[in-house]
Amino acid sequence: MRKTILGAVCLMAAFPMICCAEKADSDYPIRPVPFTSVHVNDVFWAPKIETNRAVTVPFALQKNEETGRVDNFRKAAGLMKGPFEGKRYNDSDVFKVMEGAAYTLMIKPDPKLEATLDDLIAIIGKAQESDGYLFTNRTIDPKNPAPGAGAERWSNLRVSHEFYNVGHMYEAAVAHFQATGKKSFLDIAVKNADLLLNTFGPGKRRAFPGHQEIEIGLSKLYRVTGNRAYLDLAKFFLDERGYYFQGEKYGPDDPFNVYNSDEYLQNHKPVLQQDEAVGHAVRAMYMYAGMADMAALGGYPEYVKAIDRLWDNVVGKKMYITGGVGARADSEAFGDAYELPNRTAYTETCAAIGNALWQQRLFLLHGEAKYADVLERVMYNGLISGVGLDGMSFFYQNPLEADGKSKLYQGQVGRSPWFEVSCCPPNVTRFLPSVPGYVYAVRADSLYVNLFISNTAAAEIVGTKVALSQETKYPWDGSVKITVSPDQDAAFALLVRIPGWARNEPVPTDLYRFLDENDEKPVLAVNGAAVKIELEKGYAVLRRTWKKGDAVELTLPMPVRRVVANDAVEADSGRVAFQRGPLVYCAEAVDNDGHVLDLSIMDGARFSAEFQPDLLNGVVVLKREMIMAPMRLGAAKVRDVVLIPYYAWANRGPGEMRVWFPRD
Asked: Do residue 578 and residue 535 come from a single domain?
């Protein structure tokens, strides 16, 4: 049964989208090669994906039990007694881990894990009310729901998270259906979605979700069921923003007052008129991804124009060098243009994941490498920094500087095993198994290579099945060999992304630039013969008739590069950051005599790159070469400096850390 379903219901992308046997009326012009068709075997991502499967998913399932999140469903189902525990949005954590578990089943079957999901689904089904409503804190005690939930159903959607929770349930239910072919969870999701269809929409009840997510979930339900009404409801929720005020009003001292502002909820303007990223960063990223789905699946080009304007604003004025978004920790929100503080940066792991989802969708719409460039920056830096190398320690906030003493927002001084508001660890569990789905994509007679990861894969183009493989040690080394083996000779274009960082462009805007120019150029060869790189939208395009075993070799120079920010970024004025390949580097106290906040690095300092297999699961470190000052200056010894990849910091205990260094 599993093979049948995976044949008819294929993953359209890692976990952003799926496609079904009944084709949508409109769709993304570019289709990702499903992650189930790409088998990663590299030294970088494969261990992380396996740690997620073997450690993080079981750990997160356990934490959901220990913290009462699953017990809330048991109480709502009448299987045990007691009050609701935790926050009103805790149901979503259960759903996200279930989604991640379903994806891991697609990678490696696990009867025990599948049985665990079956048990959870049975409990959730019993917790669901007879008309389809599912919100455990209200079902457990309707007269005393959790703070912020509202007095009655849907009475406080600005902060209740009722739609947010079930949006994650829809995603999890679709993933479970894909993984197992069972409809038990999907039936629960459809029953809930049908209740919303009967309640909300034109001529019915007006509303929009305070925390976006349901738009993505409804789009997935539309794909798997073919019911256009789900997509129309997602559009209704998007289009309500900027036109409709809902919910309770709070006084100036009320803890929910901050969550009631229209800018915070992206409700200050209709979505099609928004041109600046404002408010809660995760909500914004999910909304922009939902708008992209609407543009593609619904065939609404006006949504494309809106998210293109927003992309210019985010990537041009509001994104950290790590790909993180969200400057203000106190409100988890975007700041003003060029407001990018380092020590107090919010940069939530969930926001990085949302950014990755959005960038992938924009690539699928436009076919431009600049979106994959940003996606790569997010994935290799500000996203995987959110999970420790042990798979059981996490960051909610991912700052670019730390003093080793102050507690981080929603956490401890260093990494935390879990959080009271624990949206980030479950989000990691569902992203990591999806990584292989970002490597390749297909459009008509074009096959895109977006990420450089050792793998074997199967794709279909111009009616021909094509076996693919990559051999590379990326991101530690810039040599990539891609072998193309069609079942029969076939004419098509292979589009190989030439990363912006390899073209002297760290980001596709003027927000950051390399301080030093690099004269080394990428080199491309086909079957050993050099090929001139002629770029189209950031891709080297190889149009030819491909034969079995054809080999494409790409060499990307990886010198150590200095990065400086736009002059308008006050926090980085007079400072420099370091990058090698796609990786941003930082200095951590443990490698630098116990302190780094006093470090400055002059422009003339030289760095060497060295792979250390026994450090942090194997990383390339950057070392400043030790020099001696002239004798007339007292023979002062310049302090040695060691830099590690930013994603790996705080895996050896808390301490000082810095990404941006004074230049004098």
From this structure: no
